[in-house]
Input
Amino acid sequence: MHPQPAGFLATPNRDSGPGVIVLHAWWGLNENVKALCLRLAEQGFVAFAPDLYGGRIAVTIEEAGRLSGELDEARTTSTVADAIRFMSGCPDVSGPGLGLIGLSLGVYFALGASAEMPDHVRAVVVFYGNGGGDFTRSRASYLGHFAEIDAFEPADGVRDLEARLRRAERPVAFHTYPGTGHWFFEADRSDAYNESAATMAWERTVAFLKQVMSL
Output
């Protein structure tokens, strides 16, 4: 069994469940991300969020920008790969393949992992983020949640990502939530959180993961 990387692990009450890895936004592995893992565990998933910042957490946009700017892409990619190997060999994780959820910054690494580690990734959920290039090796299904008004993720980029996934003949469903901005799913961002959109995105995410991962 691959050793558990630094991060937060939440397990369901049952003996086992499908594995889901949550890749945090540029704020770091904060309480909001841990709460998301616990919510996934309540739905029957084994959820793990690796710490991509080595224990550091940002509160302000300025702090988050600094931490994300200091991120080493190769090292972070390796951390995500280690998390995938850990979850793939975890005795509590059932079924073939994993689900990945990327929040903003985490989307880039989730999309990359789905292309580079296709034997391990079955489902990818992206929240207001982008990334990746060639998805022809991917075997995953994709679900996307995007804000209508988003200075960090222009609509053209979202359309391009969807087109690239479709050219790779991957199952894909993208949703744009009217009146929302970046981070609308994150309850601790009072300046952006949209309860109705977040609830709908959560329900769609759980249904998608359960369907693709046969829970």
